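User: Structure with manganese (II) ion, tokens only please.
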Amino acid sequence: MNSITQETRLTVVYILVAFTFSVLMRMIWIYQFNDYEMFKYAGEFMINTNDGYFWAEGARDLLSGSGTNPMGENFYDKFHQFNDLSPVSTATAHLTALLAWMLPFSFESIILYMPVYLSSLVVIPIILIAKSIDNLEMGLIAALLASIAWSYYNRTMIGYYDTDMLNIVLPMFLLWSITWAIKTNQDKYLIITALDILVYRWWYPQSYALEFSFFGLILVYALVFDRKNMYNYKLLAIMMFAMLNIDGFIRFPLVLAVFFMFKQEHYQKYVYHLFAISVALFFISGGFNPIWGKLTAYIFDSSIQAGDEGLGLHFFTVMQTIREAGKIPFETFANRISGHTVSFIVSCFGYVYLVYKHKIMIFALPLVGLGFLASVGGLRFTIYAVPVLALGIAFLITELSSKMPTNKLKYLSIIAFTLMVLLPNYKHIEAYRIPTVMNASEVAILDKLKEVAQRDDYVISWWDYGYPIRYYADVKTLGDGGKHSGSVNFGLSFVLTASPELAAKMARLDVEFTERSFIIRKENMDKNESEQTKVFSNIEEMTKAYDFDDTNDFLYSLQTDVKLPKKTRDIYFYLPHQMLNIYPTVKIFSNLDLMNGEQEKAPFFFVSRNFKETQEKIILNSAVFMDKKDLTLSIKDKKVAIKRFVKTGYTKDMRFSKNIKYINESADLSIIYMSAYNTFLVLDEDTYNSMYIQLSVLEEYDKSLFEQVVVNPHAKIYKLKL
Ligand code: MN
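Assistant:
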């Protein structure tokens, strides 16, 4: 009895030690940026992941409870605006709102620190799993390593407010309950496993792939090694009921009912029937369908996709501009999982050895497998392998140390080896000084916009800024981190990179057609399938509405005096200086012929921030320089004429000023020197005349189309007057 309490006490102590360690390591970032006011908003640090603003918007709306909504019918619409895309029914928003409501901290602090404390919970299942094979030291070492390992840290650091903060914690708890279930065959682990699945699915709806892998592994184990054991089929059946593709509010009582049946002697003869029923229901409910679909969509893609009906427009997809979906080199892959190539390889051997010694650990295979999928599926998957491989190397460390002749040597070697595997990860944390998504000036602008704009108004910007705009200004956006398909981006790209006149018209069209599509979709919900109105992309709907069957003809017609749709709300443009860095990417999405998918010639767009000035020229980079005397440009030793040279800057009282010098009327390229940013731009005439360059870089606009609302050197907001 005494030894049990002793072990329990040690378990608790180890958990507390590892948890504290994990939290403190995540405070290093705070310590590094403590005086950096540009990272703060409302007295607190801002978050550093774009997607976080999505959940934050939902939580904010849940807490506010005072939305305006003309068409609201259900409970949630009370809190936000019709079709503002606020995620008020997601688990992350609910948990955040609950914590913010319960705890005496500001909302900004809650979302900043949630990843710190929630992700650190991963140490609990790790140590409990180690306890199941009577090796608590292994648990402590693995918990220390896993909690701060490279990719796990990156995706759960302070301010990385995203579902990742529980995405490893929950499957690790699942692994823990599965191992204990198989090992002890105790009834309580049936219900714990099922509840784990319910919570995991609630938190992260894409969890089915991993749940299904666990299920498959247990099924193989049951059929091959332990066929006669009824308990295995109970476990499989209750897991399957928990995994059905139906609402959680139905699955929860269902799982409870199944559990109470399993507990009763009378129902023992029906276990196989229940198992069969659960599998049948799983297929009927469509539980299997998404498993392949999602995965293949991520791994295989083509850059340009044709619609299958209607005009068959071709859009540029966002996939190839997202780096994380690309293939990654082995060293990066190893670093991300274990912090170092050597410790990664040792960890892999350690895991194999661990499975050899403790067969039960084979059930961790789905997590390792998903982690290794990173080598084809992209970096985002590596975190799944982190805790299991940490257990692998921790096992080797404890095995090696146990061979030491004295106890003192044993503990010294444990400490030495542990520090060795922790060190590269600590160094990574030290060096990983990533900035917040927004800086204080960019947010200050949005804060002011919030006072001006109505909550049903639209703000147009590139999709990267969609979530932060909605969080800080409480408005609607056309694109965001979850809505950036080729057809959505086409509209945004067109507005930002076409001429201001066309941009103004397209902005009104895109907003009104977006709202129109929401209304049609809502009406469709009350109709049966044959009566539903199919909604195509906005640009396709516009083309048809203006009686064209060629999108190019429609876009061309925008240059004439077209009748625009009725204005239902105001539209603003948010133009951050930062967007200059991604201008060519923004342009790609509208720089193609939608009818045949052919890319147009890329714009000439050149930025230099590291220029050097000599007596007679300005060296923009090794191949491009500007002659100061005759104001010509040399690109790879070829002289190129310049249309105009523009210098922008701020006067002493912070007023924007610009000076335009015309040089050669027939030339195509212009040079802009943005003195306040120490930046040179070389642009072709189309780019120079684009809405973004004109309004953001030059503050040049037609007063009948646009109105300046609020500007500072970091971002500018205009209002559409059409
Ligand atoms: Mn809203």
